[in-house]
């Protein structure tokens, strides 16, 4: 979609606001062109001494009233147009947010957060300006231009008007050349601002790491380079925009010289009155605004076009995970991974190389294996964050891609390796997926996740603010809050992706015991590096380089004397040394 189509559709939907603004503009333009005419007549009246003092005062009062009316109408149309333009900004931001919220990890894999933020703020502002200020100046400028030209040609002298307009085609050519430069400079400036935004966002997110490594100095040098680039690009854009002004100035000077030459000649030969020449000169002055408006509109539109060219692909990009499933029932029952193969985008080695596994309802499947073996990736196939390149995941005999995404995801409680705490109270963070949960429910799951006592020790207990604006919790506390959050859902499948890595072995055992006791038919997939967490699993699969290399129950795997057995012995030894 082009910017003009977007604006056209928007104006059609909000036609009332635009028509009202256009009517007010028309009234203003009429009054504006009427004033020079009245002034010219007044001057001629004064020169001929045909005006009485009373009449003169009335005429002057009339001019003041016209000025005031123009003032109020200008306020009115601005309010109409800007309100409409802000609405476009809101619509685009909501649309962008919904799109970003629906996109999967494969999309974020290729996007920079700071760039996305810049598009959601700076670029949308530029489109909003095209729908507001550019429309306003465009309407107003063209209306004034038409009426002023009509008054010049029909109301005063067409020969004078024809001569005055001679330099205008040159101005149009100059504007056309400048607008192309403004487009290029705007694109450049928006991109550099994105790069700067991205750096600031990354720096703030990783500020602790940077400080710990003593990299603030180096990082601020990079920042100053990016800030300078962004400033230079913005200055370049301003420079091209400023070039519109001298073009207008030169055109007007040329037009005035031509007007005065021919006008003087006509007055000399009594074909034009002094009052008429004065009116004409005032009209010429009134052309300044339409000319500036044209330059301004062109640069706003070019900036809007450059911004839209960055926003449109984002808004029209297909979802990386399409929700084309139709099955509305909540999945439950037997879960089957059948010959799953998957390679991440832009990677040359398979993360999953033909994995087949199954999990009966109510049972626990454990995935273990060295780092990078593909354990989390297998869960991502089930969560439908990525599509397997071949093979299928079936739940209750139905391909998970055939379930409605919402239905599928609500059947799983997922605790990722790194969970996110929002800037809210601890209670609100736990009740994230069930905001109407009672305090008793919240405390019950916090006890199951063995975090209740830790929470009570915090200054405001469950009301303690956490996340970016609150107290910092330890890694282990965060993990347990995330587990409590997951337990609040009644989902039939619980996925723990290394979700206990930061808690000590004793607490881990305590949580797993709680989970086992309150399982109530819930299935579970546990990914863990610590084998003590999986000894009770109904089935354990050892993954290596995307393949299942060993599988069975704990005792069977110990007897097999492979990777699992040696890892088990090592971890047992380590645990006994720690005691
Ligand atoms: N987003 C990604 N983009 C590209 N490659 C990835 C991505 N995530 C994982 N990989 C690669 O896929 C392979 C499997 O990774 P995965 O995270 O599934 O392993 P894992 O067994 O869960 O490891 P860990 O125990 O360290 O969490 C690894 O080679 C990893 O480098």
UniProtKB/TrEMBL annotation:
This is ATP-binding cassette domain-containing protein. It is a multi-pass membrane protein. Pfam families: ABC_membrane, ABC_tran. One of its GO terms (cellular component) is plasma membrane. It is found in: Cell membrane. The chain crosses the membrane at residues 15-35, 55-73, 134-152, 158-176, 247-268, 280-301. One of its GO terms (molecular function) is ATP binding. One of its GO terms (biological process) is lipid transport. Residues 19-303 form the ABC transmembrane type-1 domain.
């Amino acid at each position: 979609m082009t910017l003009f189509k977007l604006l056209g559709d928007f104006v059609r939907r909000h036609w009332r606001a635009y028509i009202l603004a256009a009517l007010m503009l028309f009234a203003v333009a009429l009054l504006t062109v009427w004033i020079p005419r009245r002034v010219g007549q007044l001057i001629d009246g004064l020169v001929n001494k045909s005006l009485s003092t009373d009449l003169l005062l009335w005429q002057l009062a009339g001019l003041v009233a016209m000025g005031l009316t123009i003032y109020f109408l200008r306020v009115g149309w601005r309010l109409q147009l800007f309100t409409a333009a802000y609405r476009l900004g809101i619509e685009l931001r909501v649309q962008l947010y919904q799109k970003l919220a629906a996109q999967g990890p494969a999309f974020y894999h290729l996007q920079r957060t700071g760039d996305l933020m810049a598009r959601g703020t700076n670029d949308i502002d530029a489109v909003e300006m095209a729908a507001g200020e550019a429309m306003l100046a465009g309407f107003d400028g063209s209306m004034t231009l038409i009426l002023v030209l009509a008054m010049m040609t029909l109301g005063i002298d067409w020969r004078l008007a024809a001569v005055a307009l001679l330099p205008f085609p040159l101005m149009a050519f100059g504007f056309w050349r400048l607008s192309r430069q403004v487009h290029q400079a705007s694109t450049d400036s928006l991109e550099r601002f994105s790069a700067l935004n991205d750096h600031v966002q990354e720096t703030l997110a990783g500020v602790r790491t940077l400080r710990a490594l003593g990299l603030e100095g180096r990082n601020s040098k990079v920042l100053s380079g990016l800030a300078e680039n962004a400033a230079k690009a913005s200055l370049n854009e301003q420079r091209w925009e400023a070039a519109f002004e001298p073009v207008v100035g030169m055109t007007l000077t040329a037009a005035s010289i031509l007007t005065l030459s021919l006008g003087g000649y006509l007055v000399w030969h009594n074909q034009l009155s002094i009052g008429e020449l004065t009116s004409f000169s005032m009209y010429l002055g009134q052309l300044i605004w339409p000319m500036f408006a044209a330059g301004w509109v062109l640069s706003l539109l070019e900036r809007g076009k450059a911004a839209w060219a960055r926003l449109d692909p984002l808004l029209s990009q297909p979802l990386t995970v399409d929700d084309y499933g139709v099955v509305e029932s909540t999945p439950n029952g037997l879960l089957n991974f059948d010959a799953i193969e998957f390679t991440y985008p832009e990677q040359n080695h398979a993360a999953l190389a033909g994995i087949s596994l199954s999990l009966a309802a109510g049972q626990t499947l454990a995935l273990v294996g060295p780092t990078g073996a593909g354990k989390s990736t297998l869960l991502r196939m089930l969560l439908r964050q990525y599509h397997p390149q071949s093979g299928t995941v079936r739940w209750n005999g139905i391909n998970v891609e055939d379930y409605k995404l919402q239905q599928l995801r609500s059947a799983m409680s997922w605790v990722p390796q790194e969970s996110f705490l929002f800037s809210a109270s601890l209670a609100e963070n736990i009740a994230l997926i069930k905001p109407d949960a009672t305090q008793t429910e919240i405390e019950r799951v916090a006890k199951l996740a063995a975090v209740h006592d830790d929470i009570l020790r915090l200054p405001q207990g469950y009301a303690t603010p956490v996340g970016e604006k609150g107290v910092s919790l330890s890694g282990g506390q965060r993990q347990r809050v995330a587990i409590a959050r997951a337990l609040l859902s009644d989902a039939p499948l619980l996925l723990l992706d290394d979700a206990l890595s930061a808690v000590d072995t004793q607490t881990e055992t305590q949580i797993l015991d709680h989970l086992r006791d309150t399982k109530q038919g819930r299935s579970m997939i546990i990914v863990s590096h610590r084998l003590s967490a999986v000894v009770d699993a109904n089935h354990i699969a050892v993954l290596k380089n995307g393949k299942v290399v060993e599988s069975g129950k704990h005792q069977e795997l110990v007897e097999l004397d492979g990777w699992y057995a040696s890892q088990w012995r090592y971890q047992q030894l380590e645990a006994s040394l720690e005691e």
